[in-house]
Amino acid sequence: MFRQYVLTVLWLMLSAGVQINAHASADLPVTDGLVLWLDGADAVHMTLDAQHRVSRWHDKSGQSNDVSLDDPAAASLPLRVENALNGHSVLRFNGASAFTGQAIRTAKGSVTVFVVSRRLPDQAGGKAWQRLFSSRPQLADNDNVAPNFGLSVQQTGAYAPTVAFLETTNVPIGPFAVARNVVGTSEILRGDIAEVLVYDRLLASQAERQQVSDYLSKKWSVTLPQPSTAWTRTGPLGPTPERTNANLPLSDQANAGKWVLDTRLSDEFNGNAIDATRWHVNNATGTDSLGRKPALFLPENAKVANGNLNISFRKQTLPEKYVRLGYKDYSSAMVRTIERGLYGYYETRAKPMNSAGSSAFWLAWTGLPDNATEIDIFEIGGKTLNGKFDVMYNMNAHVWATPQSDEHLSDGSTWIAPWRLANTFHVYGFDWRADTLRWYVDGVLVREAKNTHWFFPMQIVFDSEAMWDWFGVVDDADLPSTFRVDYVKVWTQRP
């Protein structure tokens, strides 16, 4: 395993995995944001002596972040070894010397690091936690204490060609070191490094990650697991797009998607009552859901006023007939569109309620018992007892039944926001396509997943539920609380 202070995502891919077939186009890594590129296969970007010892490893990114030998007088210097891995050369380190570089970025921000390395049996030994890459903007005893970060190899024995991956946020980059700690002379690598890629950002999509992975796999014949079917952002959003056209998705103001507004499913809630031709409000009749116990869905908790759809969660004495069913002391509401939508872009501007009553924006298909699906664009606990849910943007996609099985399938994850979600309005978007599901916050992609089951038209749902087992029991002092929706807009793509 690799050790670092906040390793939000880490791949350690050994020979037990499955070889990925690289795409023909994966001849280069992603170059946007690339600030350090050290390539063992490229002798042109090395300063070598007659014995193939390397004193300087030159940066191919164009940013001039070269690394220099830490100790030219060391007994053993890094060597360029030709035809060592998949027909390419690598740099070989023997635990005595390595490379250091100057700071790449002094301001805190995001960073993504890939390192291809291995250790042969005759290179085994040395101290544990040998470094592959280390960044230490401050002198401290532990380079895994923020804002320091690093990638290390725990084992001292041989290991197969491996891609180590680190993604983290809120850190500077440097001064840094390759194959050693930034300070001190311990924990210098015994092994080979083939390539180092450092980005001063998070990779923006699963496609970008796949491009880098395919490039490294093809070049170095590195054994990788099957690619992940989903990606979730870690850290802040970064720059957010400016709204210049209210009639287009915030994430696509240039209209590259050729979007057309679907007026059937869109509503700006500018009247003084819910539009009954557009929305159904659950009223405990027919096949309506009664709510999540103990909170009962009541239509009076859903109102349009001040340009918003307002869904309230409140303390309330309920009729005895519902108490007998397990509903007691609390009420909330659910509204859902009468029409159904399929592929398109779904966007709302909303402010979650400031209590542990949930605020949810989701899509539901309940028309066929053997094809029951659901997509949760968000489920938010705005104010919870321990506070950890207050910043959690929860996304999911469910399959409750298929013609082949009634097994519940769930594919979800959480983006951690740098703010309390209930503090103010934000724009939340969802791009639903036949092959891909994408979630957006303020026009920035926060999750992407492969569409494997969600191929049926669904209703749009806004509701609040008592999710005691998840967000905890609501504090009565926070009630009544209101989930406010400024608008919902849906766009489809022109052929």
UniProtKB/TrEMBL annotation:
Annotated GO MF terms: hydrolase activity, acting on glycosyl bonds
Residue ranges annotated for the GH16 domain, each copy included: 241-495
SUPFAM superfamilies associated with the record: Concanavalin A-like lectins/glucanases (SSF49899)
Pfam families referenced in this protein's UniProt entry, alphabetically: Glyco_hydro_16 (PF00722)
Signal peptide: 1-24
InterPro entries hit by this protein: Beta-glucanase-like, Beta_agarase, ConA-like_dom_sf, Glycosyl_Hydrlase_16
Keywords for this protein: Glycosidase, Hydrolase, Signal
Family: Belongs to the glycosyl hydrolase 16 family.
Protein name listed in UniProt: GH16 domain-containing protein
Species this protein is from: Pseudomonas fluorescens
